[in-house]
Amino acid sequence: MIASLAGALQTACPGLKTNELLSRHTSLAVGGPADYYAEVNSREELIALRRVCQSSQLAVFFLGAGSNLLVSDRGIRGLVIHLQGDFRQIQFGQGPEIQAGAAAWMPTVARQCAEHGLAGIEALIGVPGTIGGGLVMNAGTRDGVLGDVVTAVDVLDAAGRVSRKALDQIVFSYRRSNLEGEWILGATLRLKVDERSHIMGRIDEYLKYRARTQPLATSNCGSVFKNPEGQAAAQLIEQAGLKGAACGGARISERHANFIINEKNASAADVRTLMRQAQQKVLEKFGVTLEPEVKLAGEW
Asked: What domains appear along the chain, each with residue ranges and CATH number?
């Protein structure tokens, strides 16, 4: 049965790999193997994979950019899909609406929109993720989120048909949406016309701020915890005395306490231990429960 499943997956996606280490595909550079790993370049491949997964009841996980993700050292069972190729396309029309594929890199979308004189997603210039992942978690910063400009999302349903979710079918909230579990193909974004120089100026400011405040030249997964209402997770962790704390090869960043960096061959368990320490100390000192922003995936 395993051999026949692997064969069916291979037929659907010729680039299929087995037991692929996910540490090679995450920004934190940790994570064990996926049973099956598929880099999917076209809708035809994705539709074929969906049919195989439906018939075999195989669990599926979409990797996105691997940037807001902590994969267990034991890996992920089932199929991990990494969209590439056609899913990276960004299409501009005559008006302020664009079509962005699920695998389009959010900073690339932001910069190309700026070059076309379209404003509204400049804040995404420093968010290292894809449109698909950004839709699921309503990615963004205090200056704006992806959900602010979405008008529709294209998905692949269980029958392998492409359907469009209108805005009134989508619920966005802080680092969350009701698109979790959907096979997202791309989205329609409505922007605003503005002077290119003004947009690029705002982008430059966002990038400078990010360079000043975040540990960019490290392996990390971005903000580890959501900000509690009216508070900053980084400030709470720092005031709890954990800035610079280490476990194995992982360390809480001394530049930004809501970042955990892979300093030297860290394991996912090292990172998880630091997360638990931060949650425990902040709860003891401030009575605040830190909720993870990073997605925990795999067997823990």
From this structure: 2-83 (3.30.43.10), 88-212 (3.30.465.10), 216-297 (3.90.78.10)
